[in-house]
User: What shape does this take?
Amino acid sequence: MDLARPRTNQSLGRFIAEDLQALSQALLTAEYEGADLSVLMHRAGLITKEVDYYVAAAVRDAKAGGVSWAGVAKAAGVSIPTARSRWGEAEVERRLTRRARERTATGTHSAPVAGRGETAGDGSEARARERAHSMLADALSHLHVRSGLSIRVIAERTDLSPSYVSRILKGERVPAWEVIETLASVFRCKASDLAVLWELAQGMVPPAVPSLEAATARLHATLRGLYLAAGSPDSDKVAELSGGLLSSRQVQALLRGEEVPTWETTGAYVKALRASPADVRPLWEAVAYAFMHRMDATQWESGSVDRPSPFRRPGPFSG
Assistant: This one.
């Protein structure tokens, strides 16, 4: 279905297509492994459902890019009234909201990025919890070193035993959120920067479609949390490790939460900090879904999107 539209950085269809690639690879792997028919049918069903979501997202992207309903109808080989009925704003929003809720219910959010060797249901959720736990411990350990405080002093200020503080910093325990808040206060950092890492380590699932402001704040806080877990490396070093996709100035702007970068930029930043893009991608997607919800019906129907998009990259992210 070629809608002949300009490709924008905020394409919802693009990352659903990436999910389709991962699901197709999982089906091919099952075929090679001689999986039972029930497994093959289940994976084929996931692909069929995801194709429907992709088409809805592709139409949404095309409308946002200025394609008329006549253009959508021609590309799909249907009449204009049929195109409006199938892919009107309310219907597309309903489908993509359902997609987000399905991923929340299963804890998968989206299919893993192709090439990571993970498929839905292969224990990737448990590994994501382990990674988050490790990164949370690394962030707290870094903050401890940066504070210059001894374990005993921290214990006194938090009313915790020295041995318990030590186990937390070593990653042997995931404490209650109140303890994280107390430690953050002692270390003089924002507890919110550690919130998502803590939630992931606990296996908690956020709302499927949070507000745009809440989704953006969670993404920015997580990116800062990963930076702490990596030991607050110099921005020049992060830029170097990004393979040229980020400059030092862009890294600093990202840490200040000044922009919502494209997924390509976000993924490069996460990989530069030796973290897993697959763990962060659902947070970026939440911003994309929330932004879609913010679009009003008049702009949708006219194909005009004049409202500033959080995915456009003025200043250091332009280009």
Q: What stands out?
A: The chain has 16 helices and no strands.
